[in-house]
Amino acid sequence: MRFGGLTAVRSVDFTVNAGEIVGLIGPNGAGKTTFFNCLTGLYVPTEGTVSYQGTVLPPKPHLVTKAGIARTFQNIRLFANMTVLENVLVGRHTRTKEGLWSALLRGPGFKRAEKASEERAMELLEFIGLAHKRDHLARNLPYGEQRKLEIARALASEPGLLLLDEPTAGMNPQETRATEELVFAIRDKGIAVLVIEHDMRFIFNLCDRVAVLVQGEKLVEGTSDVVQADERVVAAYLGEPFEPTPEDTQPAAEAESTTSTKGEAQ
Ligand SMILES: Nc1ncnc2c1ncn2[C@@H]1O[C@H](COP(=O)(O)OP(=O)(O)O)[C@@H](O)[C@H]1O
Ligand SMILES: [Mg+2]
After folding, report:
1. What is the position in ligand 1's atom list of the atom closest to the CA of 26?
2. pLDDT tens digits for 204-214?
3. Residue 133: domain span
4. Which site from 62, 230, 240, 241 is most exposed, i.e. has the minimal number of CB atoms within 10 Å?
5. 109 inside domain
6. Is residue 224 a part of any domain in this protein?
7. pTM for the model
8. 29 ligand 1 Cβ < 6 A
9. Which atom of ligand 1 is nearest to the CA of 36?
10. Buried b (16+ CB within 10 A) or exposed e, 6-42
């Protein structure tokens, strides 16, 4: 992906398999979000293609969503003046025959699909733990809950692959742990996850595989152990080796005092 003279992402060849949680890490400006934008059709790659389940995807966001890839954004993009439930319903528009405008305008076609869609949306809100706030306006949710709501909205399109761009940015250690559990639960539903994050403890606890982007190029890719031990990664990005602490193996409820390796600026 080139922007004028700047090559933001260069020859990154990358696969996510069904059932996997894969991490994408790298310094600020490495090209991680640009890579997501290429995958999801927000940017049209200067060269290269994106395939999903063996089919090359057209670089159009709604077609990518329809094919089965959903995402969240580094800077939260909710409909601030809509309710929690309405935000999730909007996420369902690629899966309902009636489409977005009918859903928003409450047309006659919408009435028929409304009940089933609402049931599914409530299921998802229960799954992420926000069912009790269904009628709250999105803008009134605390930050951590807004991030969760974005995940619910992404799940509403029934994806096979979920892309998360810095899902724990701005979260406290407890919320980060809860998000870790949430990602495992999403994977257990059969959804593959590709996650960008600066929090190394989060990434190395969570991911089956990690790829490191530096200046738009893939420096290393491998299991958490391999990536953590790679001298080039340590030099280019981590600064110091990541040492797992005993808390890392404890469940979220017992880990309240854990301090987390906070990321750099967003
Ligand atoms: N739309 C754009 N136009 C021009 N440059 C861009 C655009 N989007 C991203 N870039 C540049 O691409 C590089 C990678 O940015 P980004 O993908 O946001 O990095 P990361 O998410 O890894 O922090 C940066 O130098 C950024 O300024
Ligand atoms: Mg980014």
Report:
1. 22
2. 999 999 999 99
3. 69-158
4. 240
5. yes
6. no
7. 0.85
8. yes
9. 17
10. eebbbebeeebeeeebbbbbbbeebbbbbbbbbbbbb
